[in-house]
Amino acid sequence: MGVRKVVALFGSSRAEPGSGAYARAYAFGRVIGERGFDLVTGGYGGVMEAASRGAKEAGALVIGVTAPPVFPGRAGANAHVDLELPSPSLLSRIERLLDLAAAAVALPGGVGTLAEIAAAWNRAYVDRLAGRPVRPVAVHAAWRALLRPELEIAPGDLELLRFFEDEAELRAFLGEIG
To answer: Are 116 and 94 in contact (CB under 8 A)?
Structure first.
């Protein structure tokens, strides 16, 4: 068996089991596992837990990059994480998530998710400038209104993001990165 590529998934820690956001994250995690990828998330609850569960049930290895000094009230990684990698800060956590991943997928979320999108997008931008292979970034369409050409964001820079809405579009994105 060959080495499987890893996909980083970002999203809200606030999604509750039984909610639509939790169910969608579970389905997206399952698609990632079914497409033959392993998964890395921030390792905690909400979307991270739901996606971890879906990916694990589909046969993926699940990695959780937690940040205990930042979140001392959290008990540790969710029950679906196979390997927990603690980080000392939010920035090192994001960097580790991106270092482990061949691609990134961002679901709806808050400020933390936005920071992760910005970091993944910026890494793709810098890699393109340097002539290195670009690690693809798929962003849920819910972010489209915020991530648009304005200020200094050129349309070509926006093209580094692939917007998706459903499982079929995520499956197609993952098929392109094989």
So the answer is: yes
